[in-house]
Amino acid sequence: MEENELYSKLMNGYKTEFDRNGVSGQRVAARLHKLSEIGRTGDGGSFRLGFSKEEQEAKRLLKSWMREAGLSVSDDEAGNVFGRMRGGNEPSSVLMSGSHLDSVPNGGHFDGPVGVISSLEIVEAWNASGFLPDFDYEVVIFSDEEGSRFQSGLTGSRAMTGKVDMDIQKGLKDSEGTAFPEVIQEVGLSDSTFAEAANHNKNIKEYVEIHIEQGKILEKENLPVGIVSGIAGPCWLSVTFTGEAGHAGNTPMTARRDPLAAAGAFVSSIPDMPGEVSGSAVATVGKLEVRPNGANVIPGTVELIVDIRDIRKEDRDVLTERIIEEAETLAEKHDVDVEYQQNFEVSPVPVPAETKELLHNAVNDEGIRAVEIPSGAGHDALVIGHRYPVAMLFIRNKDGISHTPEEWAGLNDIVQGIHVLKTYLEKK
């Protein structure tokens, strides 16, 4: 990707009529481009793992923009970043908006950054127009939302809301075998104080998040913005099949204890199971490790992660139990051992009816037909929603593609989403 390609592509076809009431599409495009330069991959994607130097560099860049916008900037013990604008009334609560800046390996440039930059653009617009909200407004950047480094995500928002089990967290290791305490120490954090991120009295009035839709509904409806009706809760189930490694040529088929044979049958059984439980349930095996991983060696161990989601907790829990039962059945059939544990689990979050009504009004005020979309993906709003009221907007995402360099949200759609968010906030 050439130096200015992202910026040029965003600005190509941008309707300057959306530059109104202090909102600047050019500024949004420039900031998305500048952020995309951090952790740029050879494929033109983004590589900013949680608690990496790249994520830290991205946070520093956003902090500089926050300060330029007049915000009071602070960090907590989990590395979450907050930029606060004082409201007109005596502060008693804060309305928070933002997202994350970390990415999956070789991910896109819109998942997370759109939410952070859109939330900051609200401040820029208010500064330009002289508008002062009654409430304090805080732009937030949560740490390690994706969870790609430790296979356990939403870390910053979980820490802020007191949902991190530090005994489990300390035991996590990344793909290089580096333990969580050592990793965060490299970016100036400490496992001894990490959980203290929950001790700050945030007194959050509401958390609002803009995010690209990781689906195709808005494209199908030909709409730039959608209202999230609820957020599915993910459960990450770690499953390990253990057998006996051996020579591929000298070990008879009848004498083998092959964990990959069991794991293969298990993975093949997953796609049919969600539909037997719920029409909105999904389950995915996206990570699998075979050891010793030799072409002429019967594996000794196979580890995999099953990502299980539904917008109803009771259905998701039923599906999880069925998946565990299937793993045990197949392990017995193939004469191997199986162990499993939940790396993390978050209950689904519905968006209140009165909040959705206000979002409908804001969308309609911008001349956009309002539609509601359930979110199958987990977001920081999912974690925050278990403690504070939440609202969420989706931005149209080309072909529904996410977590790859091909991920794309058009600037016209992003800026229209910013106007919807601005209208919604100004009526709070």
Describe the structure.
The structure is a single chain. The protein is an alpha/beta fold and 428 residues long. It contains 13 helices and 15 strands. It has helices at residues 5-11, 25-36, 53-68, 113-129, 155-160, 166-170, 180-185, 217-221, 259-269, 313-333, 353-365, 380-384, 411-426; strands spanning 72-75, 81-85, 94-100, 136-142, 204-212, 225-231, 233-242, 246-247, 282-291, 297-298, 301-310, 337-345, 349-350, 372-375, 390-395. Strands 1, 2, 3, 4, 5, 6, 13, 14 and 15 form a nine-stranded mixed beta sheet that branches. The protein has a four-stranded antiparallel beta sheet with strand order 9-11-7-12. The chain has a two-stranded antiparallel ribbon with strand order 8-10. The model has no long low-confidence stretch (mean pLDDT 95). Belongs to the peptidase M20 family. It comes from Salimicrobium humidisoli. InterPro entries: Amidase_Cbmase (IPR010158), Bact_exopeptidase_dim_dom (IPR036264), Peptidase_M20 (IPR002933), Peptidase_M20_dimer (IPR011650).
